[in-house]
Every structure is written in structure tokens, then in C-alpha cells.
Amino acid sequence: MRVLIAEKAQADYARRLEQVLGPDLELVGSDDPQQLPDLAADCQIWLGQPDLLAQVLREGPKPQWLQSTWAGITPFLADGLPRDYLLSRAVGIFGQVMTEYVLCHMLAHERQISAQQAAQARQQWRGELPQSLAGRRVLIVGCGDIGHSMALFLAAFGVELHGIASQAREQGPFIEVASISELPRMAAEADYLINLLPDTPATQNIYNSELFALLKPSAMFINAGRGAAVVDEDLVSALQADRLAAAVIDVCRVEPLPAGHMFWTAPRLLLTGHSSAPTQPALMVKLFVDNLERFQAGQALQGLVDFSRDY
């Protein structure tokens, strides 16, 4: 059985897979879009980046099973691409690293790191005291694999955890998980509003002027989900009008963000360049090997995508 690896780190993936699986699989790989279609033609299984493999699908080859190395699979949902194959997302490997990303910005906000740095540049001794995360109300919008893992990590900091999912449900350690229709009510009470939602028609443009107008002026908005969820102009307007304390934006509608975009100069907005949760090859290989065993046994795959729901 031949496996195509389409990854910038394809040599690392191949080395790790050979250590685990030995000669059981024939591994071929590249990160060159020109080479990948020919390599893919005889491969039943594909492993790699959606941005590379979506181009291969458009050229004609198609796998029996494709394991994405990203949590997001938006490139595979483009018009004209096939949907009659097994596609699995990367799940169970991003919880800690995504929490580290979110937590560092929450702590920096409470400890007033930016103000401290600015005061140091002015050679000014600040007397203002920082605050604590304990008791802060955190709303995680998207309570799937990553959101649930994040909640488990954040619980140790004494925050008040609330969530938003497609449908209301009971889910520890959240105090409440409400449906997406309840986002305005829940967001109005949040100290930290964290978006982790995938990009679907139902999640586009939900962070708009109407929603931002409901937030506490002291609230922080963190978008580590998808850029299409945010109306860019409305977020910048909220920051300019001091209706929002700060925003951390990891994902944008167009990436890389073009020169001249309003995010570059918006007040109290930090851009992090889609770096919140890089895929760690060791964890990804472990997930792939587990799913390979499931695939060969005809069992359900972890992270199997339901194309009718776009995730």
C-alpha cells in the first residue's frame, strides 16, 4: 500500500512513520505542487496539508482516504472538488498548544504586559497593579475537540467557563453550553470571547457590529477559529470606539494579510499570523497510525468529516 505525504515537513513525517511501521507501507512524498499529482495517482492513502492536497484533487487523482494534518479542512470544501472519499481532520492533537496560545494572551492582558513595556520605553515607573484570571468569565465559542480540551486546561485557573455549540448540551467543565443562537446573550457577559468555530455558512460574519455593541468595554476578543467569522470593519470600529478592550487575531479572511489592511494599524489589535496551533509531527504521526489501523479494519476514523455539515 502506497501512502502519499504532502507536507513541507514530509521527510520528517516519512522518517517517523518508517520507525513505527517499518516496511509495511511504501511512502512517497513532496511539497512541490507540480510533482504531487503524478505521485498521487497510485496512492490509496494521502497524508498532508489541505492547501497542497486540494490542488491535487482538482487535477483528478483521488484517494480512498485522506488524513489532513490540519484541524481545518476548508480547502477541501471548494466548489468542484470531489466528496466521495474518506476525509479525516487532525483531532486530539491541538488542545494543549491552542490553550497555550490563548492563555498567554489572557495572562498578558491581565498582567498589563503591553502597558509595562510602553512605560519602560518611556522610562516611567508604573504604579498600577495587575489583575488575576480567577473569576473571569470565559466564553469559548466552539466546544468540540479543541474547545473542550481548552476548557479542561483553563479550569485550573479558576475562570468561569461557558460555551457555545451548534446545539445546547451539558458538557463539563462548562457551567453552560448554549446553542449558537444564544451567542449575543452569552457574549454580553463575557470577559474573554474566544472563537474556535470552523468556517461554515452558519458561522460567517457572526462577529459583527451588532454583537460587538453588546460586549463589555473591558472584554477581550480572541479569534483562533476562522477569519470569515469576523466582519473586519466592525471589529476595527469597535476598537476605535473603545467598545472593546483588545483583540487578538490569528486568522484572517485573506492570508497572508495584504499591506494596507486595517488590521495592521487598528488600536489594541495584535496579529499573530496563523501561528496559534502548529501541527506537531510526533502527535500527528500517532494519530495517523491509529487511523490507519482503523481504516484497514473498516472501523470509524477519528475526526471523520461529514461533508454534508462541512466539518
From TrEMBL:
- TM regions (residue ranges): none
Keyword annotations for this protein, in alphabetical order, are: NAD, Oxidoreductase
Q: Does the keyword NAD apply?
A: yes
The record's section on SUPFAM superfamilies has: NAD(P)-binding Rossmann-fold domains
One Pfam family this chain carries? 2-Hacid_dh_C
Gene Ontology molecular function terms on file:
NAD binding; oxidoreductase activity
Q: Quick check: keyword Secreted in the entry?
A: no
Q: Which residues form a coiled coil?
A: none
Q: Which InterPro entries match?
A: D-isomer_DH_NAD-bd, NAD(P)-bd_dom_sf
The record places domain D-isomer specific 2-hydroxyacid dehydrogenase NAD-binding at: 104-275
PANTHER family reported for this sequence? 2-HACID_DH_C DOMAIN-CONTAINING PROTEIN (PTHR43333), D-ISOMER SPECIFIC 2-HYDROXYACID DEHYDROGENASE NAD-BINDING DOMAIN-CONTAINING PROTEIN (PTHR43333:SF1)
Put simply, this protein is called Phosphoglycerate dehydrogenase
At the highest ranks, the source species' classification is: Bacteria, Pseudomonadati, Pseudomonadota, Gammaproteobacteria, Pseudomonadales
